[in-house]
Amino acid sequence: MLLAPTPALETKMAITTAFTKAFHLSYPIGLAPMGGVAGGALAAAVSNAGGLGLVGGGHGDREWLAKELAEVTERTQRPWGAGLITWNTNRQTLDFILDYKPSVVMLSFGDPRPYAGAIKKRGVKLICQVQSLEMASLAQEAGADFIVAQGTEAGGHGAHQALFPLLPAVIDAFHPTPVLAAGGIADGRGLAAVLMMGACGALMGTRLYASDEALGHRRIKERIVQATAQDTVRTRIFDTIRGYDWPKPFTGRAIKNRFFEKWQGREGELADNLDAERQAYNRATQDGDPDIRVVFAGEGVDLIKSIEPAGEIVRQVGTEAARLLAGGPHLSQVLPQK
Questions:
Q1: Does residue 171 sit in the same domain as residue 273?
Q2: Quick one: DSSP state of residue 211?
Q3: What is the tens place of the pLDDT at every residue in 185-215?
């Protein structure tokens, strides 16, 4: 990682890593490809600000993908990508995305090896998100250009291990493959911390969910701003009501609400009452009712104070990280030996 003055202002510092070099980024920041949230407008805003925008392909809804992929290609000329849930995708969905000529495809939550060849054949870079050393080994076998070590602090789906133990373990085990960090990173301090640990960048999800360009009802974004880390919990309840059979060990971190309080620990009863409960849940989704519908959010919510334009968020986080890293040498001193 190098810090160098930018051409525009010598008083500002640019962070240069394998991640920024690969995609010509101003900041080592990527948008977590949140399904149903990270649409074309948000991905383009992040890319235009100097990060890497990733459209959240989610479970592969073709109509949704067509709209959002067309939008990102219209709104930015900078590198962008798309993410897929590996266990629930297929070759047809992948080829559909590749036809839009992304710079990168990110595969998460499953074995990436069956799809890696098709991605590489198109000259597209491959990012694999992992939650353990075992999953990282599969990513390396797949030929991942970048590995994302995702800690359990992350909003949405993830597993059990915290970011700070996982990140250096993945970096050490799979060097020289560059590694990004994800999970609970919501400001420049978090970005600076993972860069100091050896990461080449970070993905941010929840912080960019609370942005103007993110898809979703304003009430949902406001709930993220109001929430604390103690309000979040890992659960399968919201997958059950939405009809998604996520494999182990993946659960979703979401903000606790009335629906959670009613059904947590009563999953069997929920399964027996799905038709009635799903009607109410779908209405709440349309209305943006955070007391019923899922609000996926990570433990970094304590640091989110407002809903802002995504580009401003990227610039603020990147600038703060560069400032902190530039000041880092002044925090240490050599003491004389006694």
A1: no
A2: B
A3: 999 999 999 999 999 999 999 999 999 999 9
